[in-house]
Write a structure and sequence with these properties.
Oligomer: heterodimer
Structural class of chain A: mainly beta
Largest sheet of chain B: 6 strands, mixed
Shape of chain B: globular
Helix content of chain A: under 10%
Shape of chain A: globular
Number of helices of chain A: 0
Order of helices and strands of chain A: EEEEEEEEEEE
Radius of gyration of chain A: 14 Å
Order of helices and strands of chain B: EEEEEEEEEE
Structural class of chain B: mainly beta
Largest interface: A-B, 28 and 31 residues
Helix content of chain B: under 10%
Distance between the termini of chain B: 33 Å
Radius of gyration of chain B: 13 Å
Chain lengths: 115, 113
């Protein structure tokens, strides 16, 4: 019930195409859903995040779609660029022991955008 | 500092030795987290510090792992009697408050040989 399932594990997209990464969760107590982007040798960096009271959030070429009833959310990268090649992690936040705002992360999607 | 700083960036140690990993959070951030990233896996929560409150240690995998945070700032993660399965990237993150916008450091890559 604590898991966040992420797919696909890897993704290859042509430059200019749309990259779509999906995540699903079980626990309805989750209330904050961020996406992180990680380049090799670097820590993950926050890309975009959504709360469950909205169905979509867009920031530039990045859009999160959220389906509360299906307990699914996805990241869409429009006009994908070679510089977007990285590993993407979805996450869900819940309040744990001692008020911990810990994240439960998906297993990551390695995206490669071909020039 | 401008970002979360972790040291060392790489550490190779022999099985059975103790290691200490250091994290300097962003100045003013009250929440500090440690996560572990194993090859091909997601990030696994280890421990959380918030101000002067008791830490949430629920993610520590065994009693060989411990962490402290001194003066509400710098944190040290200690792994005693290291095992090969401890090999991973250990990531530290801090946030001003709550879950919003963790900032991660670049991590310490630990290799146990």
């Amino acid at each position: 019930q604590q898991q966040v399932k992420q797919s696909p594990q890897s993704l290859i997209v042509q430059k200019g195409g749309i990259s779509i990464i999906n995540c699903a969760y079980e626990n309805t107590a989750f209330d904050y859903f961020p996406w992180y982007q990680q380049f090799p040798g670097k820590g993950p960096a926050l890309l975009i995040a959504i709360r469950p009271d909205v169905s979509e959030k867009k920031e530039g070429r990045f859009t999160i779609s959220f389906n509360k009833s299906a307990k699914q959310f996805s990241l869409h990268i429009m006009d994908s660029q070679p510089g977007d090649s990285a590993t993407y992690f979805c996450a869900a936040s819940m309040v744990g022991g001692s008020g911990t705002y810990k994240y439960i992360f998906g297993t990551g999607t390695r995206l490669k955008v071909l020039a | 500092g401008a970002g979360v700083s972790q040291s060392p960036s790489n550490k190779v140690t022999e099985k059975g030795k103790d290691v200490e990993l250091r994290c300097d959070p962003i100045s003013g951030h009250t929440a500090l987290y440690w996560y572990r990233q194993s090859l091909g896996q997601g990030l696994e929560f280890l421990i959380y510090f918030q101000g002067n409150s008791a830490p949430d240690k629920s993610g520590l995998p065994s009693d060989r792992f411990s962490a402290e945070r001194t003066g509400g700032s710098v944190s040290t993660l200690t792994i005693q009697r290291t095992q090969q399965e401890d090999s991973a990237v250990y990531l530290c993150a801090s946030s001003l408050f709550g879950p919003y916008g963790y900032t991660f450091g670049s991590g310490t890559r630990l290799t146990v040989v």
